[in-house]
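User: Show me a protein chain along with its predicted structure.
Assistant: Here is one chain, sequence first, then C-alpha cells.
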Amino acid sequence: MDEFNAITGGTPDENPVNIPAAQDVLPEAKLADLPEKLREGAALAGWNELLPVQAKAIPYLFSQRDMMIQSRTGSGKTGAYLFPMLEMVNPLENTTQVLILVPTRELALQVATEAELLGRTTGVRSIAVYGGVGYRAQLDAFKAGAHIVIGTPGRILDHLLRRSLSLKYLKYLIFDEADHMLSMGFYPDMRRVQSYLPEHPISTSMFSATFPPQVMRLTGQFLRDPGFINLSSDHIQVTETEHVYYSVPGMDKDRSLVRILEVENPLSAIIFCNTKLHVEYVATVLQRFGYDADLLTSDLSQAAREKVLDRVRQGTLRFLVATDVAARGIDLPELSHVIQYEPPEDPEAYIHRAGRTGRAGGSGTAITLVNITERAELLRIGKRFGFAIEERPLPSDETVQQVVSERITALLEARLRGRDKLKTERMQRFIPLARSLGENDEDGLLAMLLDDFYQEEFYGPVEPPSGEERRETQPPSRRLEPRSGQASERRGGHPGRQSGSGRRRPR
C-alpha cells in the first residue's frame, strides 16, 4: 500500500480512526486565570479577552492531552496553543521543547512573531524556519538556542538531516492547518519528521479547518487517544460538502478560473459548463495553460468517449470538463471539487452537480463562478435547499504568485534532498552558471526552467499504477496522489508517486 492510501484509508478492511469525545469536559479558560507572565504578554499584544477557540482549547493543552481542534483560519488558534506552550516551556533548558509544523513561510513568520510578542516576558526563544531562503541565519538561531521551533515540514526535515536541529528533548508537537499541509503535499516529509521524534511520550495537538479522511488518518499516526473540540458543532466535519462562489468579471472568466484552480488546488475535479461550445473552450484554455484536462461532450465519438472515461475510471485525469448531459449516468471516482464554470439553468441541476463530490464519507467542495445577476439566484438556491454558500475573494495575480512560489520551493528542496552523492557532485558543475544567470538578470531563462519544472511536476498527467499495485476492491481514485506540493522522495515528495508507480509519460 502506498503512502497516500495509508492516509486516505485505501484498503477496504482498514477501520477509520476512532475519536472519542472528551470524557471530562474542562471549564473554559479566562484571561484573568492565566499565569501572570502570560497576562503580561497578552497586555503587550493588546488582548483584552480570550477568543472562543482559546477559551476552550487552552485547558486541554495545559492538561497535556492530545487534541484535535477544528477551527478556521483567523479564529485565534495560534494563541490557543501558544499560551500553554509558553507557560510549559522551561527557558532555563537550552533545548528545543516545542515543534510547530505549518504549511507556509507566511504562517511560520506570523506564528513566530506572535510567539515573540506573547512571550516577551517569559524568556522563551522562538525561531521560524522555512524554505526559499539561506540556512545561515537559521543555523545561527539554532546555535543560540530555540525553545520553540516553527517551520514548514520540508525545511524542518532539512535541519534534522543536517543535525542542526535535535528533537531529543521535545515535549510538545503542534500541527497548524493540517489540512492545508496535506493539500500542499507535505505528507512524506511529515512522516519522515516523525522518525526523529523522541521515544518518550510527547503531547500532540492538531489544528485544522476540517477533518477530511486524509487528516483523520494523520491523527491516527501522530495522536494518542485524542479529544476533539469543534467550535461550530458537536461532530467532526468529514462528510459535508463545502459550497463556495466567486464573483468573476465576464470578460476575464477564463483567467479567473485559472487563478482559482491554482489557489484551490483541487485533487480532482469535474468542471461543468452549460453548452458544448463552452466545454470545448474551457478545456482548450486549461490545456494551453498546461493543466491535465480533457473534455466530455455528446459530440465525441464512442472511441474518444471511452478513452476519456478510462482515464477517469483509472483516476489519472485530474480535470474533466463536461456538460450535464454528457456526464449523466457516469459513475465518477471520488472528486475533491465540483466547479461550475457557469451556474446551472435550474436549481435541481445544482444539487446533482454538487452531489458528485463529498461522497462515501469524504469531504468535497462545490465552487460556482458567478456574475452580479447570477449571484442572487445562486444564493436563492442555497436558501431553498438549506445550505450556506460562502463567498471567497477572487485571487489576485500576487496571491497566485505567492502560492506558486511556495509550492515550487517545496518541490525543488524535496528533490534536492532526494539526490544521492553522485548526483549532488554532478550538479556542482552548474553552480557557477546558476550564479551567473542570477547576477546577469537572465530572468527569462530561469523563469522558463521553473515554469517547465512546475507544470511537469504539478500538473502533468500520470500513468496508472502497474497491475500488481491495483486492488480490485479499492476505488481507482485512491491511487492518484495529491499532486499538490511535493513529489515522492525520488522526484520530490508526492505521496503515492514512487518508483514504478504513477510515473508520467516522457514528453
